[in-house]
Each structure stands twice: as structure tokens, then as C-alpha cells.
Fold this sequence. Notes:
This protein has four helices and no strands. It is an all-alpha fold.
Amino acid sequence: MNSSTQKDIVADKNLVAFCGLYCGACRSYLKGKCPGCNNNIKATWCKIRTCCIDKNIKSCADCKSVVLLDCAKYNNVISKMFGLILNSNRPACIARIKEIGYDGFTLEMTDKKLHSIKRR
């Protein structure tokens, strides 16, 4: 895929990242520069991804062993910096997934063309 070609934003629950972001509306994913969190085997640096894979869960929304706000893997310095830079509220994404499910979340994020719920 060349840099002038961009994918369309589509609702696909397989494009929900382990941390709650929606890769299906991410600029890097849409431009073909990133395969999305679930398919990014090079993202071994992501402790959230590793944890969810180890627990065999789709995202932190499915975690039963740790309270999200107390999770050191979810609330690390790098994640907080990315959240500030990208104006991203990943905990709100996880809460929304818990509220309306993966299908509802992907439809909502696709409709709004957002990769994350924004910070207020």
C-alpha cells in the first residue's frame, strides 16, 4: 500500500486494542503503517498487550484480577505520556466497552471516527 492510499474506517471488534483504543480509526493503521495492536507482533514493549495475551483476554475490559486504576501495567509513565500527547482517555474507552460491549464500542468509534475517547 502506498502512502497516498488510506483504508476506510470500518467497525471491526478485532481492531480494539488491548488498552481500549480503537485501531480501526487510528491514522497509522489507516495509512497502512501499523497492523493494529492485535496483529503487531513487534509491540513486545507493550506491557498491557503482553498481560492481556498471557491472560487470554481481549482487552483490559475483560480483566477480572486487577482493578484498572490500580493496575501498574495500565497506568505506567509511558501510557500516561501517550495519553497526554494524543489527548486520549483509555480508561474511558475501557469503561465504555464494559458498558456497551465490543460491537457497540466499535460502531460508536467508527461513527465518530475516533481512535480514542478524548480527555476533557
